[in-house]
Amino acid sequence: MDSAGYSGTPLQMYEPHDLYVKIGDEARLFCEAFVGRIDLPDAYNEVHWKRMEHNGSVKPPERFQVTNKSREDNEILGSHLLIRGVRREDFGQYTCQISNTWFQSVDTSVWLREIVPYHDESQDKTAYKQILLVFAAVILSSLTLVALYLRFGLQVRVIWKDSFCRQETNDGKDYDALVCYDDRDSDFVLGMLVPKLETLYDYRCITHHLGSIHGNFGTEWSAVLKGPAQHSRRLLVVLSPSILHDSWTSAALYEALHALLTIHNKIICIALQPLPKCDPTKNAQGESLSTLLHAVHLVEWRSEGYCVGMGDRSREHKRFWASVRLHLPPHRYSRQAVSLKQELNQMSVATTGSRVNVCTAVGTSKRGTVLTNSHESLEVLV
């Protein structure tokens, strides 16, 4: 073809493809055609970009930049349409029209489209499954930790207290616990509580029975317990109807606890029976029975299923001893000492087994000879 005399319709040189961009990105459209060369003084070629809409075509906005380029001695004419910061209204069809001197033209169309994120439902299902698995694992782990804490948490706290808490040995006090009780509860105190605390757990105890004290708790108890309490790290009181003169009411219990709190600031109360219903009414000082119960460490004893000589094999009794030990002073002792004390305790139980009914529940009125490790708590019950 003789390009110097070509006067036909411009020939498209480049076939554009649809362009996919994101909102805010830069888009560049391009078209190119062969227009030839005509040796006329007024010969000229033109390029126009248009945007196609439903009701026709419109010129691109002024913010669009059009750059025309020619090559091969102006025989090939091309054009770039640059869009910076693409907006949503910029998406659509664009037409590049290249015309020659004879008003002949060629149109090149191209689409500017928005990139749509690929949505894979299978990946979503996999992600949901993974989230459910993680959630189930967290729930299962939490339930396992809660179950382990409910089963072994108390024992772990006791071991931690005895192993790492600061010992109370240099406080000038001679005893770990002052144990107060009524004569009618001596089987429980002298037959099981004190011997086990002394022989198995190596606590030094002193006992004091309050059965002969009658009248006002505040004046009588304070007078007889103030001295021994000053030499004891804990005040351990066995609560029962007998120690309250058979008045197992919230008022009597309030009076007793109020008197005990004036004697010692670290009190452990062992309740042999369920406590009476607390009266929510507060006195002039803003105190109630619930307030005083929160100020002491309350441990409930359940005699069901306990047999002398059989040990504390039930879960409730293990929790009882762990609860009592948790509030007693920290104790360091070696495994060898513990095993030796366990053997001595078993020998003692075996020796007394011939004299005591093996399955007699602690807390009844049976009496027998009791030996303790502390000379101050040595008593013979008739």
Automatic annotation (TrEMBL):
Residues 10-109 form the Ig-like domain. It holds the Pfam family ig. The chain crosses the membrane at residues 131-150. GO terms for molecular function: hydrolase activity. Residues 173-328 form the TIR domain. GO terms for biological process: signal transduction; symbiont-mediated suppression of host type I interferon-mediated signaling pathway. Keywords: Disulfide bond, Early protein, Glycoprotein, Host-virus interaction, Hydrolase, Immunoglobulin domain, Inhibition of host innate immune response by virus, Inhibition of host interferon signaling pathway by virus, Interferon antiviral system evasion, Membrane, NAD, Receptor, Transmembrane, Transmembrane helix, Viral immunoevasion. PROSITE patterns: IG_LIKE, TIR. Belongs to the interleukin-1 receptor family. PANTHER family: INTERLEUKIN-1 RECEPTOR FAMILY MEMBER, X-LINKED INTERLEUKIN-1 RECEPTOR ACCESSORY PROTEIN-LIKE 2. Interacts with host IFNA1. Counteracts the antiviral effects of host IFN-alpha/beta and key IFN-inducible proteins involved in viral RNA degradation suxh as host OAS1. Acts as a soluble IFN-alpha receptor and thus inhibits the interaction between host IFN-alpha and its receptor. This is Soluble interferon alpha/beta receptor OPG204. It comes from Zootermopsis nevadensis (Dampwood termite).
